[in-house]
Design brief:
Number of strands: 9
Distance between the termini: 25 Å
Order of helices and strands: HEEEEEEEEHHE
Shape: globular
Number of helices: 3
Oligomer: single chain
Length: about 180
């Protein structure tokens, strides 16, 4: 199995092909009350709460349990802001967390995709043709990353707005 084949398998699937696992005791995404939200927030590398940080969501492909997606772990405690976020609502209300989507195969981490978590929807992290210049209209969502984020958006918010609608509202394109 190649990484490309895994991504093609994810892109060809729908939420019905996946089993979202419920949160339970000892779940890695279960945060201790008052504990750090990200590794940056910890009291150092020996903070016992670090072991409790993890992804709050996990799904397994029903037809092949070797393929697992986990998502929602905050990659950074830093605020993310770019002008295009204003397309999604009033800037005082739009808050984006930098989160990661991990692709696991046979229990091993084989890919990590950076994305943005909002209240009510998920998006892939935007790319730029000119990475040193922020906010220009050259921002876009990479197609190979958009498909996994579309799937986890639909798994996380089945009653929410469609992924296509959120992408359209953002003003960015999937390329």
């Amino acid at each position: 199995m190649t990484l490309r084949e895994l991504h093609e398998r994810i892109a060809a699937s729908s939420p019905a092909h996946w089993r979202v696992l419920p949160v339970g005791p000892g779940w890695p995404g279960e945060q201790l009350a008052g504990g750090p939200a990200t590794a940056e927030d910890a009291d150092g590398p020996d903070d016992p709460a670090l072991g409790r940080l993890g992804h709050p969501h996990r799904a397994v492909l029903r037809s092949d349990v070797d393929l697992v997606l986990t998502w929602g772990l905050r990659e950074s405690g830093r605020d993310y802001f770019e002008p295009w976020l204003g397309n999604l609502g009033r800037m005082t209300e739009v808050r984006a967390d930098r989160i990661v989507l991990d692709v696991l195969w046979g229990g091993s981490l084989v890919d990590r995709l950076l994305g943005l978590g909002f209240e009510g929807f998920l998006l892939p992290f935007p790319r730029s043709r000119q990475p040193r210049v922020k906010g220009l209209p050259d921002r876009f969502f990479a197609r190979d990353e958009a498909e996994p984020w579309r799937l986890v958006h639909e798994l996380t918010f089945p009653e929410g707005p469609t992924f296509e609608r959120v992408v359209h509202r953002s003003g960015l394109r999937v390329e």
